[in-house]
Design goal:
8-stranded mixed sheet; 12% strand
Amino acid sequence: MTISNRRDFLKSATAAGLIATVNPFERALFAMGRRPKGPRSIVCIYLRGGADWLNMIVPRDDDEYLAVRPTLAMNDEDGLVQLNRDWGLHPAFQSLEPFWKEKQLAPIVAVGSPHTTRSHFDAQDFMEFAAPGNRTVRSGWLNRYLQESQVKDASEFRGMAMQELLPRSLRGEFPVLAVPSGMDRNKGAKTLNRFEEFYGDGPVAGKMPGQMSGEMERPEDGAGIVESGRVTIETLRRYQEILAKGKTDVKYPDGRFSQRLAAMAKVLKAGEGLEVAGLDYGGWDDHANQGGAEGRHATRLKDLSDSLAAFCFDLGSKLDTTTIIVMTEFGRTVRENGNRGTDHGHGGGMFVLGGGVKGGKVYGDWQGLKAAQLYQGRDLQVTTDFRDVFHTVLDGTFDFKAPKGFFPDYKPKKISGMY
C-alpha cells in the first residue's frame, strides 16, 4: 500500500467521524505500509433473522432486480457505493468503502447452505454446526477448531462470546467465555457478582442477566453453557481489568452492538491470546416495511457498517491479523412481497474483512435474477457452500488444515484467490 493511499485511508476515517486522533505509532505503521506479524484471530458476526443480502450487495446493472423490487431496489442515483461495473454496496455501507479501496473487504454473493430449510432455527443450527441436515452434530465449527488446535497452557481467552449466550458456532467441548452485559461499565463488579451467583447455587441461579433482544434464543440454548461458565469467574475479573486499562482514539456509534465491538477491540489489542470471538446482531427478519435506501433495514445497515468501520480503525495495524466474517442463516426472496418486505429465502451472502484477505473483489458465482435462474423460481441459488468459506478462512487465517470429518459429510473446497 502506498504512503498516499494510507494517508487517504486515515483522512477518510477522520472525515467519517470515526477517529478523533490517531496514535502516532499506528499512524507510522499505516504510512510505512508494514504488515505486522503476530497471533491471528477470527471475529464472527452473525446477523440473526435472515438478512437481505440482495439489498446489501446490489447488482447495479441488473434490470430484473429493479423490476422485482419496485419499492426496495436501488440504483446509483440512490447513492450506492460503487464497487465495480456490476456491483454496489447499499448507501448505508459508505463507511466500509475505504476498506474496499484498500482491498481489505471481500464480499461473497450467492453463498449459503445446500439444505432446503427456511426455518430460522434449523438454518442457524446447520450453519453454525457446519453440518446441514445432520442433527446429530452439536458442536460449533469454531469450537471444533479450538478443540483440534489446543495446546498446553493456552490462554483462557482463546474463545470468547461478547454476549451472555454462546453462539452455536462456539458451543462444544472446548470452554469458551461468555461475557455478561454490563461488564464494561462501572457497575461491572455488581454484574459479575450476579454472574457468579448464576453459576453457583444462589437465588438467581439459572437466570441469565440482560440477554440481548433479537438473538432468537430457545429454551434449550442454555444447555451446556453453565459447565463452561463455572471456570470463568476469574477470567471475567481479568476481563474487567483489560477493559479498565484499554484505551481508544476511535469514536464508536451509540448502541449495544457497537459497544460490544469496542470491548472486543480492547481484548484483541491487549494481546491476551484471543483467537476466536463471536457476536450476534439480531432483528433482520424484514417481512414488512423493509425500506430501500432509507428505512428500517437501512438504519440497521448503517449501524452495522459504522460499527464495523470503527472496530477496524480501532484495531489499526492489528486488522491485518484479524479476520472478520459477517454472515446470516439464509437470504431473502428475490421478489418483494405485498407488505413491502421480503420473506425467507435461500442463497444469501457474506463479508470477509481484514486478516490478509485479498479484497477489492466480489467473490462467488452469480447466476442472475431471471425466474429460470432462481432456486425454486423465487430465491437466489446457492453457488458457494458456506463451508467452503469457513474452510478458506480457517486456512487463510490460522493455516489450519481441517482434518477428515471436521466438516461432517462434506469435503470443502478453497475459494480461489481469496488468500
